[in-house]
Write a structure and sequence with these properties.
Layout: E1 2-5, E2 17-21, E3 24-28, E4 55-57, H1 63-66, H2 69-75, E5 80-84, H3 85-109, H4 119-126, E6 129-132, E7 138-142, E8 145-153, E9 161-167, E10 170-174, E11 199-203, H5 217-233, E12 238-241, H6 247-260, E13 269-270, H7 274-287, H8 297-301, E14 322-325, H9 335-343, E15 350-353, H10 362-368, E16 374-377, E17 382-385, E18 389-392, H11 401-411, E19 415-419, H12 423-435, E20 441-443, E21 450-452
Parallel strand pairs: 3-4, 4-5, 5-6, 10-11, 11-19, 12-14, 12-15, 13-14, 15-18, 19-20
Antiparallel strand pairs: 1-2, 1-21, 2-3, 7-8, 8-9, 9-10, 16-17
Helix pairs in contact: 3-4, 3-7
This protein binds zinc ion (ZN) (2 copies).
One zinc ion binds near residues 62, 64, 65, 177 and 420.
Amino acid sequence: MHLTDLNRQGGIGANSLLLEIGPFRVLVDAGLHPKEVGTEALPDLARLDEYALDLILVTHCHLDHLGGLPLVARRHPEAEIWLSYESSVLAPRMMRNSIRVMSRQREEQGVSEYPLYTEREVRQLEDRFHAVPTGRPEAFHQHGEELTVEFLHAGHVPGAVSLRLTHGGQSVLFSGDILFTDQRILPGADPKEAGHADVLVLETTRGASAREPGQDRESEVQRLIESVAATVRAGGSVLLPVFALGRMQEILTILAEAVRRRQIPEVPVYASGLGMDLANYFDELSRKNRPLRFRRQILRELKLQKTPRAIEPGRPPPGPAIYVASSGMVVENTPSYQLAAALLGDPGNLLAFVGYCDPEAPGYAILQSRPGETLLFDALDYTTVRRARVERFDLSGHADREELLDYAIRVNPHTVVLSHGDPEARAWFEEELYASVLDAQVIDPEPGVRISL
Ligand SMILES: [Zn+2]
Ligand SMILES: [Zn+2]
């Protein structure tokens, strides 16, 4: 079996892995890099041109895994596209949003190749989707042979799966983005379900950060609730930058619960955009007896309002209020970027980060800043002195590094391939896996290099 990492930039970037197993050529994910622009944001798709692809598998609908799918599909009309039922519902919505963002970037930043695909292509793509149930192996036939594919619930966001592929006595497990702890809206992945695999392709997102002793998800939820409550009671406003898919609905559910229990006073709550639309999809999926538990009703309970459109830097909208806004990494030209610029100058306000932040993203600079420091909001041509409190709460959608280590030991592969992590994160896993009881080779694949497994 051979594996090629098509993510050109390394790190988390545009996820895409080509697996050659027996006669089968399988592509796992086709993402868009969240910070690169134009064709640079794509995985190295030219590498796929030489041969036909049999199968494209999608682990989940975050754009760093899904955003490049229409381009791969266009080049490979012969390939079947397999994804979970939830992902088959959510993917078109995510890709349509991506088209909208790209069209805006074309206008604002003059990216002439944008959008990279059209609404029509997304519609046609839907006809090629095959929704695979989780926890039940499914056979894929081609070349007169059989490849067994099993989707396992991954707990990261609704529809997220790990993938187990078996052919000719060889097995490979792709963890995908994975979370073992239960969230309010979604149960965690069960590491026991993974079973044994010869090769494990492991996400390493949190490799560079240790969890504080005595701290767990529930204690972090309570700490968040107390911080939000204290801020709004004193008349300040709170900004929670979140990813639209999964994290926004989780945070809104936590807030609704806290308001119901009178832990947080009733103040205006604002959210808008893609995350609100996805909330409707989540509600429908929840009714279909999926593991997902989300009810649209909580939006009414929170008396949720649309985020005001005209937010000016340095002129914070009247508080107290709670803003739940994407992007989670406070990327330029997003509601959370505008709101951060508006709220950071006031010592009464709070910016509460609840998920992963890329070291290059504006959110990371905010997280690292000290009170009194000057922060530049380049895209708004605005600088502000940071006076607001900035806190981080560990409510990530990714498993702890220690949990992933245990998971790898349980899977007991002869080879672990590291993926989806910054260099320091991968380095931690490489060292710890070698130091562990696991007798496995650890590979940190170089982008574009075909490795034998
Ligand atoms: Zn993800
Ligand atoms: Zn990811």
